[in-house]
Each structure stands twice: as C-alpha cells, then as structure tokens.
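Propose amino acids for all 221 sites.
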C-alpha cells in the first residue's frame, strides 16, 4: 500500500462486527481505532460532565446529541496518534455528523479514504449482541456461542480472567439501537456513495471472510 494514512469510517448496525474488524484493521495497517461508544462508556465510568449527560441516553439506546459527539470526536482526531490514520467505529451516525466530519477533516487538510458498510440482517444482530462480552483488561471481544475464549474464562490475548458485558446489550435497548440505526444512520449511505468512497461488505459471512473483504477494499482491489 502507499504511505498515505488510511482514514476510515466503518458503518454498520450495532452488533455488526465493527469493533472486531476495527481491531483487525489496526493490526494490519496501524491506523488508530476510535470507537465513539467506547469513549462515551469511559466517560460514564469516570463520571465526567460528558458522562453524566450521556448516561441515561446510552441506557435507552437513543443517540447522544450531535453537538456533544462532534466535539468529542473533533478533540480525538486532533490528537497526534491520529496522524497514522484512524478507523472511526460508531461515528458518524447521522447526516449532520457526517457533514461535520468532512468539515473537520478538510480543516486539517485531510479526507476520508474509505467508508465501509458492514451489511447484516437484524435477526442475526439480536443473536450476536445477546451473547457478547469482552476482556476487562485488553478489550478483546468474545461471544458465548460464536467466539468463546479458547480456554474457558481466560482471555486468549492477555490471559486476564475478568470479563465485562455492556449494560446496553439487552433485548429492549438493542431494539431501540437498531431502530436508531435504520432511521438516523442509513441515510448517510447515499451521502458517501455520492462521494465515491463507499464499499459494501457482506457482514453475514464468517469473521475471517469479512476481514478478507475489508482488506481487499482497503488495498484498492
Ligand atoms: P456503540 O458502542 O457504537 O454501539 O454506541 C453505544 C451508544 O453510544 C449508542 O447507542 C448511542 O447512545 C451512543 N453513541 C455512540 N456513538 C454515537 C454517535 N456517533 N452519535 C450519537 N450517539 C452515539
């Protein structure tokens, strides 16, 4: 690949595999994964002003107001590590966020190199989300049925025995999150399609197959 940093947006419904694939893109290309949901959950844990504003919204499955999230991402993208390229996971989620991102990047002389949509059926998402958990120490994602740790109770990557489940991974909140995705996020797709940066990947395939499709898209094949 060329030396140009990859500035990527991963789009797709909750449970669509964005977190897993974002880690794999990081391993391959060195771009920095930025998960807006993870940043908000960290803010809730530390009890910052942002966290206090976001807490009840996260629990409901609705979206946090655009201006809050745009400011958060603007600050993150300005950090020096993002010069290596970045993978946005969970942002943008509305058309105003997508437009704001373009303006933020243009102001830094940057643009998105790729937007990848992971396409997954709603029924499969409910099943994926209801069984997922992650390592409390290194964040590696697992699933009770589809991707358990090789040794039960021990993280494959860092050996930790502590795991966590997200509070918003329950049936009611998942339904609200899927509705928010269909109503507010899918309208972004034609916006990126018009810019000629959108690639659609079959997110229903087995995890390694999904990664292979993404790597192919990123290598420009
Ligand atoms: P995620 O981890 O991406 O599934 O995000 C978890 C929750 O954080 C969402 O259900 C929203 O409440 C909130 N959130 C994350 N990213 C955004 C965003 N770009 N815009 C608005 N709300 C967001």
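Proposal:
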């Amino acid at each position: 690949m060329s030396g140009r940093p990859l500035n990527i947006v991963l789009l797709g419904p909750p449970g669509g595999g964005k977190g897993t694939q974002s880690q794999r893109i990081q391993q391959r290309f060195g771009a920095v994964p930025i998960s807006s949901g993870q940043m908000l959950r960290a803010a809730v844990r530390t009890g910052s002003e942002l966290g206090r504003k976001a807490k009840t919204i996260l629990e409901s499955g609705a979206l946090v107001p655009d201006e809050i999230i745009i400011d958060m991402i603007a600050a993150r993208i300005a950090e020096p590590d993002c010069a290596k390229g970045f993978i946005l996971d969970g942002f943008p989620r509305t058309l105003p966020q997508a437009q704001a991102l373009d303006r933020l990047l243009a102001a830094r002389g940057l643009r998105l190199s790729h937007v990848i949509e992971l396409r997954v059926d709603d029924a499969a998402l409910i099943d994926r989300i209801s069984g997922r958990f992650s390592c409390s120490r290194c964040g590696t994602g697992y699933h009770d049925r589809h991707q358990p740790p090789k040794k039960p109770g021990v993280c494959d990557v860092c050996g930790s025995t502590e795991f966590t489940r997200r509070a918003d991974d329950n049936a009611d909140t998942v339904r609200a999150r899927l509705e928010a995705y269909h109503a507010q996020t899918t309208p972004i797709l034609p916006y990126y399609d018009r810019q000629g940066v959108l690639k659609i990947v079959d997110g229903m395939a087995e995890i390694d197959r999904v990664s292979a499709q993404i790597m192919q898209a990123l290598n420009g094949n």
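Strands lie at 6-11, 32-35, 85-89, 114-119, 132-135, 141-143, 163-164, 198-202. Residues 14, 36-37, 40, 57-58, 61-64, 69, 90-93, 97, 177 surround adenosine monophosphate (CB under 6 Å).
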